[in-house]
Amino acid sequence: MDIPLNLKGHIVNTxxxxxxxxxxxxxxxxxxxxxxWQGIWQGYYINGDHNGVHHQMVQGTxxxxxxxxxTTFVGAAVPASTWTFELWKIRSDGRHVMRxxxxxxxxxxxxxTKFFSQNCGINGGKLYIVASRAHPNQTGDTRAYSASGNLxxx
Length: 154
Prior knowledge:
Elements: H1 5-29, E1 31-40, E2 45-47, E3 55-72, E4 82-90, E5 96-105, E6 114-132, H2 136-139, E7 144-153
């Protein structure tokens, strides 16, 4: 049985349109949200919820990535701080639940970025970041720190 030539053209056009739609749909379904903070010196605790910085993410395997660096350094040569990064979710009932936690040891020198990437499992919804380090009075670390990165779900 022969397929008419105009029907073959419609089939080819339909298949091409479906393929193009797939290439357009996948990036739309992916979700990326940027985050950043800068110049933290005496501060040793950053809380996105307290600052009103929330990230609305689609459900999926979430990657928490970025970099942290010292922006200034004054004082004695002491080890750079270890920062703890946490990802928190605000549930529909209003409860806050920690979804992921990991540590990053900052580099010693000024403007030397320590990059990181952490798989935080299946996550989505309204999220926020908490970052903390030991108080500078305890460690003697007088560096000011900045950090930036993104949250991503495919």
